[in-house]
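User: Hey, my collaborator sent me this sequence without any context and asked if I could get a structure. I don't really work with proteins. Can you help?
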Amino acid sequence: MTTQQETRPTAAAKPVRWAADTVARMREGARLRLDYSAQSLWRVDRLIEDLCQDGKPPAGVDNVLRGFGAYAGEVIVRQTGAEWWAVGGDHWVRTPDGKLWDPIAEARACFTGDGSLRLLCRDAMRGEERT
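Assistant: No problem. I've predicted the 3D structure and written it out in structure-token form, which is a compact way to encode the shape of the chain:
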């Protein structure tokens, strides 16, 4: 029997690792448990809000935002059966209905107050309900 990691496309390797690293960092550093549920993205949105309010420059938190975006993408993958796609160094999630989602860009948009990982996940999951 193979694990989910072994059967996934190579495009998933980096974002899956970024997401896992984020889960571990949040568990160890912030004592926050992220369980890959859609509900956990409420907490992630709040964490990004807190980063923004701390006055940190976007370049200073880019790796953190990438990790949160990868985590949100992995939530979508696990909830909808989507898959990771990589083109030119960018990583997107493609849901079974063929739509592409960019959770890493959405995490960066959250930092500027123009996005929500929770809403991105909700929209990706709604698309699956209609098909």
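In plain terms: The chain has six helices and three strands. You can pass these tokens on to your collaborator as they are.
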